[in-house]
Amino acid sequence: MDKQAIYDDLKKRILTLELEPGAALDEARLSEHYRISRTPLREILRGLAGEGCVDIVNNRGAYVSSMSHKVLRDFFVTAPMIYAAIGRLAAQNAKPSQIHEMREIQEKFRAAIAAQATADMVYCNQCFHALMGEMADNPYLKPSYDRLLIDHARISQTFYRPRDPQMAERMYSALDHHDQMIAAIEAGDSKTMVDLIVEHWELSRDLVEYFVKPDPLAYDMAAANS
Amino acid sequence: MDKQAIYDDLKKRILTLELEPGAALDEARLSEHYRISRTPLREILRGLAGEGCVDIVNNRGAYVSSMSHKVLRDFFVTAPMIYAAIGRLAAQNAKPSQIHEMREIQEKFRAAIAAQATADMVYCNQCFHALMGEMADNPYLKPSYDRLLIDHARISQTFYRPRDPQMAERMYSALDHHDQMIAAIEAGDSKTMVDLIVEHWELSRDLVEYFVKPDPLAYDMAAANS
DNA sequence: GAGTTTTATATTGTATACAATTTGTATACA
DNA sequence: TGTATACAAATTGTATACAATATAAAACTC
Q1: Which homologous superfamily does the CATH classification assign to the domain defined by B69-212?
Q2: Which of A91, B20, B134, B137 is most buried, taking the most CB atoms under 10 A from its CB?
Q3: Residue contact B143–A147, C-beta within 8 A
Q4: What class is the B3-64 domain?
Q5: What residue ranges do the domains of chain B occupy?
Q6: Do B140 and A79 touch (CB under 8 A)?
Q7: For A178-206, what is each residue's pLDDT tens digit?
Q8: A42 beta carbon < 7 A from strand C?
């Protein structure tokens, strides 16, 4: 397992919440686990800190970045603007090879949904949106976008309930959006792309809203039975 | 000189173009210069890479991040949106202690302009806008904003001509904008704030436009004398 | 028994030595 | 003369040992 692979593995474990927000990342333990010395491991942790996955406190170690209420609020304030901008730029700047790669990811995504393989779904979705960031090809937006994607993955996992039939519906909507996005990107149609991004975003927003404000239990049993 | 001081010093040297875009950052040379070993120096370089000051290529060392035409274009595409968003959030979220600090920076800025101390002007301006980023208090926008500020400083220095009388005018306009911004932030008036940000931005845009498209020399000497 | 100081342990930070990779140069050959 | 290969130098990457700092525990004072 080389350095990049360890980097990716750690990032994946953070994204999938296997390493929970706030969890301490002990250098000695991790370096032993991955069979490398502390020096390169520290560089990996600092790299992840640059991406926003990890918070480092001087002389007190590294922690998986937290997900406080404030962070959640900031996420919902910021994501629409950045996502729209990235979508617009992706439609303008995508290279043919990237569009091809996107189609491949989309087919894997489709298969994962059909197979109800939650982990694969999350991963393919992540790849799809990360690639969109590459297409946009803007070094100033990329760091913010990547940070949003990291927390987007974590938030989605927090609120996703695999047994709820509404979830399957949502996933097929998302899949459909992705198909339309690929078409818009190929056509270089940035206006349609932004509309799709907004629509897609509302899926995520509604998921959390539904969690915070779920269908209430009947508080008047007599009425519920009538 | 502790680690943070070395970090700041390197960043400052990059911002002031003392270390030019694309310049190689030799680990051995730098570690000797700052009297620390390579291990912490490497961490500093990776930290700066996370901020976007430095590009690191595997097995081929660190370089001051470049300023290609594409980067310049991306800068002008992206900055208005992010600056406006940061301005709006700063007006909404600024804490009294931060407003107080901002006033102090502004007075130093005023003094630097009066004294025509270019380096101090650049530094105070940088501090002013960095503090605005702190006020906005949004972890998703901050990485993009900081990256924009780094290149903004470098671009401004590239196109600034201290001997041009127009430059002094511009600086007084900027100073005036800053005064008005502080008032808007204190009043929590985010609408006015965004208008000011746009106006302030046009100063920077015009500076570069003027450089790219300066007053042409007379090409018809007869006509010029008539 | 509560609070403070001291001591021990654990963890992070730094220096140095060594390994791996890349780059430059010289030489052989077409 | 141009290209390819082999070797040498320089530079980056990693491991390990040691130093500094923070946390936990124990002893002490009041």
Answers
A1: GntR ligand-binding domain-like (1.20.120.530)
A2: A91
A3: yes
A4: mainly alpha
A5: 3-64, 69-212
A6: yes
A7: 999 999 999 999 999 999 999 999 999 99
A8: yes
